Amino acid sequence: MLISPPLAALSKAAARRAATVAAAARRRLPLVALPGAASLGVPELTSALRRRVRLMPQEDAGRTRGAPLPLPSHGRGFAADVGGSGGVDGGSPELLVVSFYRFADFPDHGALRRPLKELCEELRVSGGIILAPEGINGSICGTPEAVEQVLNFIQSDNRLKGLRMIQSPVTPEDEAIHHGHTSHSPVGAGEDAPFRWDHVRVKLKKEIVTLGDPGVMPTKMVGKYVKPKDWNALISDPDTVVIDVRNMYEIRIGKFKRAVDPCTKSFREFSSWVDDQFELTESESNPSSGNNDNGTGEPSEDLNSSEPKELPRVAMYCTGGIRCEKASSFLLSKGFKEVYHLEGGILKYLEEIPKAESLWEGECFVFDKRVSVEHGLAQGTHKLCYGCKQPVNDEDMESPEWEYGVSCPYCIATKSEEEKERARARQRQFETWGVIGGPDKGRSPKRLEANYAVEEAKQLSSSI
């Protein structure tokens, strides 16, 4: 359980929340009617805002225009309080976390950023969302009604309909953070706080998940989706190569039996690992190419074989499905014929498959305050090192290399004394104010609007 802050800290936190609400209110535009907005469950938008998001009257053949898209059923053992009662103090509504993504042809993604951010702030929905020319990726937290309104708003654009979504329960501690009942940071000493209602980030990037290869297009081709109920049979086949597409620090705390660890520090390294692991040449990854020259006028040695290299059947998985979906597109472009990936990722598998039948070992790292989850999406045992954002267990926190908010056994060797002192200073600021840099995060309240405009322009230019 989190320790309750003193009354003085609570009053400061209340003042900060009031200032945040006031700043958000100043940013909002006056509202006018938008046909169909009420039925979508989206706050009415101005004509200028409507132009930015480029909403067009659209409808599906099998669905009445504006009808809300219902959320999927909640995870095992979790029921949302749709009546708005209950919560950590009996007066605050219960919350849920929804992770979602969709690959789509979305060149005008920048137009969605500001209206989406303002909607989340209006509805007190927190989290992080990435917009890119290849689609959308995000994880948000709020009341069921508020989250549903945000998802309906996103899917009002036909290109983003059919979001792949996973819901997770929220712990009482997370609810306290979201509703402002504690000043403790859920993630990263206040800088990345997906469960604080006054903290939502909508970023513009070149990719919704960074592989670094512009030729990979999941909108054109992807591998075959495998339901959690069919996953065990596939990965138990000795002829199947099982690949964990996640990073080393994620795999360190849990993985499927027989899974290969690529030992990558970021998803960007995955393509190089595939080339090295399967000894792929340029010709093999591009069978239509007729150039077999190695630069000396002689055929490349690997091409002397009378038969092309036989690539194995591959089954891949990741946390929620987005990385392995993009990785499957990459492998197909490299000449692999049988490429499978776990639909809904590890989270969907842990939600649906009983522990007694499971081939999962350990816990699953998640990118929010929960840090890790177990079967049934129950809260895991790992905590987060705010110095490097890696998961740590009880044994790690007993180590002399562990210092809360500063370092852990996995990052202490990479940090200089100057970096450690800066981390200690940030931690002291957070313990005093509940946020890095003080109530205004080190900025003048009068400059918040100017900073917001500059940030928006900078992100838009960098994502093009």
UniProtKB/TrEMBL annotation:
CDD domains reported in the protein's UniProt record: RHOD_YceA
Highest taxon above the source species: Eukaryota
Biased composition range(s): Polar residues: 283-306
Rhodanese domain ranges (all copies): 236-358
Span list, region Disordered: 281-308
A Pfam family it matches: UPF0176_N
Xref: InterPro entries: Rhodanese-like_dom, TrhO, TRHO_N
PANTHER family assigned to the protein according to its UniProt record, in alphabetical order: RHODANESE-LIKE DOMAIN-CONTAINING PROTEIN 7-RELATED, THIOSULFATE SULFURTRANSFERASE/RHODANESE-LIKE DOMAIN-CONTAINING PROTEIN 2
Name of protein: Rhodanese domain-containing protein
Taxonomic path: Eukaryota, Viridiplantae, Streptophyta, Embryophyta, Tracheophyta
